[in-house]
Amino acid sequence: MAGDQPQEVERPDYEQIKSWRSIVTLVVFILANVVVLFPFHIPLYIPRRVFNIICDGLSALRIISPREADDEKTESRHGAGKVTSSFVRFNFPMNMVTAPLIADLFLLAILAIGRKEVKEGTYGADNIFPLDIMLFFLSLAYIAISIDASGIIRYLAFKVLQWGGDAGHRLFFYLYAFWFALTSFVGNDPVILSGTAFLAYMTRVSSNIVHPRAWIYSQFAVANTASAILVSSNPTNLVLAGAFNIKFIVYTAHMIVPVLATGVILFPFLLYIVFNNEALIPRVIKMHELPAEARTRKPVNPNIPHARGTAEQQEDAAGEQGKLLSLEEIINPFLDRKGAVFGALVMAVTLISVLALNASAQITEENPVYWVTLPAAFVLFIWDLSFGWIHRHETREIARKGREELQRLQLEQALRRERERMAHAAPGERFASSDESVSAQVGAPSGGLEPGGNVLGKDSMDGNVTTTGTTPSKSPTQEFRGAGNEKSAAHGSLGESQLQKPPRRATLVSLAKDAFTWSQETFPTATAVIAHLPFALVPFAFSMFVLVQALVTKGWVPIFAKGWDAWVNKTGTIGAIGGMAFLSVILCNFSGTNIGTTILLSRVIQAWQVLYHFKETEISDRTLSATIYTMALGVNYGAFSTAFSASLAGLLWRDILAKKHIHVKRLDFATINLPIIAIAMTVGCVVLIGEVWIMKDDTPASDRYA
Predict the structure, then answer these.
(1) Residue 323 and residue 266: Cα distance in Å, rounded?
(2) Contact predicate 267/676, CB 8 Å
(3) What pLDDT band is residue 366 in, cutting at 50, 70 and 90?
(4) 143 with 376: CB under 8 angstroms?
(5) What is the phi/psi pair of residue 432, to 5°?
């Protein structure tokens, strides 16, 4: 019930904001959010002798490998930055994970906050329980990402691509509707993970789509629009529903009409106004043709390391070959049918159970919804492990072959570069550094070779290129053992002594890398899902909860609530909708993503209710409902506004595009999204006004559910 208040409510103390600790708390909160918006690195210089002592100590404990000889012109091997004279430079990140945490530690150090704020910011207070929210979100995220890892999203997107054919506007509509429907079910993260990569490939293999802007921005907007329908689709919805004791089914009933209306109106706005350009959305899309051989080739699981062999590197190359490999990625997608069906079944049962449990629970009962999602995620995790173990021999073989192809390609490239260097070098210099050059150029593919540092060597008995220190029959991470007599002969001419190096001893780091590689090759789906879980959200969310709780106890949130009350008294329900729409979208960009915004605004509205408690009056049901559900629209839609950091989905979207060599600038992100967020919020708020005027009245909010 939105109007429920604790039986004993403390009267707000507005005088405490005058204390220096309260002022520092507000300043620290603002600075932490600025850093989240504009992350940077702090250079730390450590004396080289101290650095060497630390490395030698860690090496003696067999945590890391022994350090190599000092070379002040190269970079350190152990994660350090560039060596400058007698100092080693480390870049300490200041970002969404470290900044709020450092802010909390600083406030603890100056006694601005204490045990109470930390406990209430982690365990929970006033109907907001961060621990429950994180458990619910991470467990549900595992289910959603596991469904994505089965390949079902890319497969369905491929089917939509087939249905759309070469008609550009029709395909744009089909994909728009597909992303909307899918996000409503599984949330925006899986859609961003698979959908963004799919669109990057699709627009690349089209000869008349000049830029992917229209497709990727539309997908991002619709994913963050549809995520407002279900509570489970976005952690912001969980915070909001918990803060005001809103039943999940009641939340959806209030949100579905404004969101659907936004989706309907936004589509023609995107197609005919924002992206009305034949170079962006052509009427007829011309795709490159995929050869019949590639169409009939059995697709491989992309979760297996090096599953595609050299294609992973060659698809980024310019020219026809790179486009064909990208086309194969979308026309011949991998699909684990059993995993997809089982995952979808688990997701459906979980969502239905959560809705039923939440709807049947009494207001005074504590039935955390993670009691449903956590066991469901565990069941799916066991399925992923079992499926991986049953097919471990097949997946390990695929990984081995792919690793061999990559090593062969790297060896050929290294030899080619060495021949070119020697052809242009002076006669006396040709053999001076050939051994060192090839040793440096022939490296292991990322995540594929033994982390112990095995290097390519030459077997004097059979003349083949081999690696030392690994027995192929003992490990799925076995090394490549043959690259052809011709290559090994050329390699041998460059100097055998430099390449014959003993294998490095095992260390904690190398064992961890080995274990991760083994896990990737044995349990590819489970490992990929865990690697994609938004673990960075956990420290960030807890730190932000504590920071906002500090604002509550230091008197700032009651001050904000007093200002909000003055605004609503002057402007009424319409003003509450307009004001909250503006605040929620703006604060998403300047208050630690949409999660931080939801936490802060939820506390402000709760404090606003407390004000009316001491006025011995009640907020009207119409005004309170309008405020709450406008905030729900704003914190979801605000993800596609002016900053990537407005949401975690925005940061993920940007990083995926960067990996596909599509670099989105901050200014472009803001200018393109500005008209989109304007029309989306306008439509959503107008429909919400009609909804609250029809469904709500001026009775006190405490007399009915929100």
Answers:
(1) 32
(2) no
(3) low
(4) yes
(5) -70, -40
The pair of structure tokens assigned to 514 is 């080995």
The burial class, CB within 10 Å (0-12 / 13-18 / 19+), for 659 is exposed
Place of tokens 């000092």: 70
Name the token pair of 586. 């703006």
Q: What's 194's DSSP letter? A: I
Cβ partners under 8 Å of residue 485, min gap 6: 463, 464
pLDDT digits (tens, 9 = 90+) for 384-436: 999 999 999 999 998 888 888 888 888 888 888 888 878 776 555 555 555 55
- The torsion defined by the Cα of 344, 345, 351 and 353, in degrees rounded to 10, comes to -170
Q: Dump the DSSP string for 266-328.
A: HHHHIIIIIT--TTTS-SB--BPPPPHHHHHSPP--TTSTTTTTTHHHHTTSSSHHHHHHHHH
- Compute the residue count for the chain: 706
Which residue, among 436, 458, 305, has the nearest Cα to 467 in the 3D structure?
Answer: 458
Distance CA 224, CA 156 (A): 20
User: Where is 162: in which H helix or E strand?
Assistant: helix 152-164
Q: Are the C-beta atoms of residues 639 and 589 closer than 8 Å to each other? A: no
**Please, which residues have CB within 8 angstroms of residue 633's CB and are 6 or more apart in sequence?**
228, 255, 258, 259, 581, 584, 681, 684, 685, 688
- State pTM to two decimals: 0.79
Convert the pLDDT of each residue in 158-194 to its tens digit. 888 888 888 889 999 999 999 999 998 888 888 888 8
Q: Where are the domains of the chain?
A: 40-94, 396-525
Distance of CA 575 to the CA centre of its chain: 35
Phi-psi region of 463 (alpha: psi -120 to 50; beta: other; left: phi over 0): left
Task: Supply the angle between the helices 130-149 and 370-390 in degrees, to the nearest 10.
Answer: 30
Q: How far is CA 557 from the centre of its chain?
A: 30
DSSP string, 655-688: HHHHHTT-PPPHHHHHHHHHHHHHHHHHHHHHHH
User: Does residue 405 contact residue 310 with C-beta atoms inside 8 Å?
Assistant: yes
Please state, in angstroms and rounded to a whole number, the distance separating the CA atoms of residues 694 and 500.
Answer: 81
Under DSSP, the state recorded for 246 is: -
Structure tokens, 685: 């708020």
